[in-house]
Design goal:
By secondary structure, the chain is α+β, with helices and mostly antiparallel strands. It is about 25% helix and about 50% strand. The protein has helices at about 1-10, 15-80, 210-215, 300-310; strands spanning about 95-105, 110-115, 120-125, 130, 140-145, 150-155, 165-175, 180-190, 195-205, 225-245, 255-275, 280-300, 320-330, 335-345, 345-355. The N and C termini lie far apart (about 85 Å).
Length: about 350
């Protein structure tokens, strides 16, 4: 304003006075820039430092928030690629319809945050709080923080509020040479409640008990096989949108976040054993998966969401998971019913109906 007033006064001054003032005015501007430049640069550096600290704190929260959903995706996508250790005959087909049911335990629904864990965020009116994971429910916990000279608030992430995640899909297998079996699975996006799933993958299973049982083995002998699986499982979990907003009501929200997408790429190796007794077949397996996760949060506010999703690259490392599987099949001529339970951090149940042709 002072500069504007000064320029207005100069408009009505005689030319001779302009000549006298102009060199002084230039000098004043130069001196002002010399003093203000470090101040402006320092302010920008302070803001950028605050944003960096904010993103580090968000990654700390996000890691604990998304991890259960990522692990659940692996359990759902790798738990039922087989129904028996015995391989199909050459060119024999097995077509099946599956339904996964993954209940969420209380231990996977929430985690604890402490004020001392954060650099920029402050838990409102508390030093510690219990907050939801992506598989949890609602919360009233808020964080307060400052970026530059502006105060902001953030309601902590809420979860999908589902007690059980269901996932139906089709699967097909064909018998190849040498008691080897190829299995394929492809499902376009399936919507269940507010969540969506899609998957693609393939598996190769090879019966190794043939090497000690021989070609004339009893149909009820103990069968053993190994299987290698690749699966890509995309899950999108929606929740009530929450805002990252200024405490000044006249300012728009920095971002509104309302979904989490988890892409789980998994390579799984399994050792499978099965034994048939009359119409029943009992199956067990031990599995190890190497998993690569990609996380994306969706909503409004491209700038902040872009920074947050770019920062998620730091979370996208490879993890290893081990788990056991047990199941029972019931055979009826060319049809059979199969059940499979995956036991580990989650209990994933798979029920399926198969037809051989």
């Amino acid at each position: 304003r002072r500069v504007e007033n000064l320029s207005r006064k100069m408009q009505y001054m005689p030319i001779s006075m302009h000549k006298n003032i102009l060199p002084k005015s230039k000098a004043i501007h130069c001196i002002a820039l010399l003093f203000l430049f470090p101040v402006i640069a320092a302010a920008q550096n302070t803001y950028l430092t605050d944003v960096e600290d904010f993103l580090v704190d968000m990654l700390l929260i996000s890691n604990k928030y998304v991890s259960p959903a990522a692990e659940a995706a692996v359990y759902q996508s790798t738990g039922s690629w087989y129904s028996s250790a015995k391989s199909l005959d050459l060119f024999e087909l097995d077509v099946s319809l599956h339904v996964n049911a993954l209940p969420v335990s209380n231990a996977q629904k929430s985690f604890v945050v402490n004020d001392s864990d954060f650099t920029r965020l402050d838990i409102r009116d508390a030093q510690t709080a219990q907050v939801p994971t992506a598989l949890g429910g609602e919360t009233s916990v808020f964080y307060d923080f400052t970026l530059g000279e502006d105060d902001y608030e953030l309601q902590t992430f809420e979860g999908a509020k589902q007690q059980v995640f269901y996932y139906p899909y089709l699967q097909g297998s064909i018998g190849l040479w040498g008691q080897t079996e190829l299995t394929l699975q492809f499902v376009p996006e399936v919507k269940i409640d507010a969540s969506g799933y899609k998957t693609f993958g393939g598996a190769i299973k090879h019966n190794i008990s043939q090497y000690w049982l021989g070609g004339n083995a009893d149909s009820q002998a103990l069968q053993v096989a190994v299987q290698v699986v690749y699966s890509l499982f995309d899950s999108k979990i929606f929740f009530d949108g929450f805002e990252i907003t200024s405490t000044d009501p006249d300012q728009d929200a920095l971002a509104v976040i309302n979904s989490l997408t988890v892409n789980a790429n998994a390579f799984t190796g399994q050792l499978i054993a099965s034994k048939r007794i009359n119409k029943f077949e009992f199956v067990g397996a031990f599995a190890v998966s190497a998993n690569q996760f990609d996380y994306t949060m969706g909503g409004e506010g491209d700038f902040l969401l872009g920074l947050l999703n770019d920062a998620f690259i730091a979370l996208e490392d490879t993890s290893v998971m081990m788990r056991g599987n047990i199941g029972v099949n019931y055979h009826m001529h060319n049809w059979y019913l199969a059940s499979n339970v995956t036991i580990g951090k989650f209990i994933n149940t798979n029920l399926s109906i198969h037809y051989k042709l």
